What does this fold into?
Amino acid sequence: MNHQNGAPRHAPDAAHYDRHHSRSITDPAAYWAEQAQQVAWYRAPQEILQSMPDGTHRWFADGSLNSCYLALDRQIELGRGEQLALIYDSPVTGQQASYTYRQLHAEVARLAGLLRQLGVGKGDGVIIYMPMVPQAAMAMLACARIGAMHSVVFGGFAPHELALRIDDLKPRLLLTASCGLEFDRVIAYKPLVDKALELSKHQPEHVLLWQRPQALSTMLPGRDLDWQAALKEAKPADPMPMASTDPLYILYTSGTTGKPKGIVRENGGHAVAMLYTMHQVYGMAAGDVWWGVSDVGWVVGHTLIVYGPLMAGCTTVFYEGKPVRTPDAGAYWRIIEQYRVNALFCAPTAMRAIRKEDPQGELLKGRDLSSIRQLFLAGEKLDSSTHQWLERLTGKPVLDHWWQTETGWPVTAPCLGLGGHVAGPGSSNRAVPGYAVQVMDEEGKPLPAGEQGSIVIALPLPPGCSQTLWGDHARYLSAYLQAFPGYYNTGDGGYVDADGLVYIMGRTDDVINVSGHRLSTGEMEDLVGQHPAVAESAVIGVHDEIKGQVPLALVVLKDGTQQDAAEVRQQLVAQVRERIGALACFNRVVVVKRLPKTRSGKTLRAVLRKIADGEDYSVPATIDDPAILQEIAASLA
Ligand code: AMP
It folds into this structure.
């Protein structure tokens, strides 16, 4: 394991970064052809960049590779067989385990053989609905090995959400475990899977289940298979050559409607982007210990827990715990010290939770954090106060950077490997090479430095970014490319200052971010609207000190409804919890007489958000009845 100390390895060199960024934009094909040489392709691509008539792009179309080979076999070939690949630390079960590259390779190859034995092959979909056990990472890699597309569904999602994804992907196989653990609570997963399969039209041929001792599941004979038992019989499978444009995985993310969007990640662009990210953005080298604090159900889990660190030959820390209460707010400092972590990624919400419980950093005292070089934060807005607190407490640089499920890797970041300059609190840093970030007004006119508008990226997007949505290319074009022709619309608002530093102010659509989890208020509104006593509703994201945002539902009851408002409230909370999951934190429902509307009947959400957050607001000129705003302010007070 790496024991080097945490002194920053990269000195700032603005000219170096500038040269890279400018070449990546003026000649993207040449720039990424060079970067692609870092990848051990089976067949190196000759066709680097193709432009499609609809504005999308294809990267490295004639290349051939295997993503699992790059993450495991290749590392062994490079002499890292005995190096730790994955360290599992689970304060919720008291378990700690580690796997060298050779051991992880053996596990994955055998699981890949089992999947193949079960009839899973190239191009098949596999859903992975699992807690943070190493088998989840093995499952992802095993799919990649045989060319199956995995789709990991976050274990906190309720059966209804899982069913939506099953019907969209139509998986051949579903992989799960008997339970997950939340603090001291055991959450049985199998009843959730059974319920989802009752709700979904599509049925996978088998459910492969990893039994955990904390809760054993009952099995449906014929359909459900015991993972541990089946694995004993399995023979290892070799990696399968894949075309660069074959999907590696589908990852569903919330859009503005109830139907999740299946982001498609292609093997070739992804592999190039992973190596580039780990080296140039995060400044990591083979042998470093990296900790992506997240869950395999999110994009961070794909990029920064599994594929990125392993493809770069790092040791990845795989943590089944929370920032607090597993057992306390010192858990992160313990992990850093114990495994000599060199850099970590986490969402700001985790640090806010730690700060709330241990503002003075009592639990950090006496811990040796000398291994760590930087702390990278992203996933939601990093408030300056948390940024400064964390820097003061740890004495290490705290680096805000910005990306999305769609891009799969950072859009703005300090780019440590390129000598990138690091911004202070408030900014998510400069555009990473490959991304030409601009700000537009509503008419699609570029705005000057400092002015706030929609943040867009000039096409082509660099390798690794999703170029379509699973089964719905038209939705990709309308959701991302239509609003600003020639540009990808990120859905975020903000500005870029005269030094090129990007400031993200929040979403411009109906997506909110709860503890770094992206959720659709439109979907919650749909659910609320299904209640028989509800005439109409508006669900908005309001500020929360720890979670960043939480949903607030303003509900108008039907005239003459017999139901008591408190009862409706309770039922709505229960309904959203059951259908979306507890992760939505949908607890606040306020019954109001009317909603503020424009004369054309559109709900004025922006002004509702301001009222709910206690900010000053001006009465919109388009409002049909200004008096309503005071009524709502009084209801929320
Ligand atoms: P997800 O696709 O779930 O990773 O969510 C992506 C969204 O999270 C972005 O579109 C932003 O709205 C938000 N986000 C991510 N990183 C940051 C950041 N550093 N600052 C502000 N918002 C962020």
Observations:
- The first helix runs from residue 14 to 26.
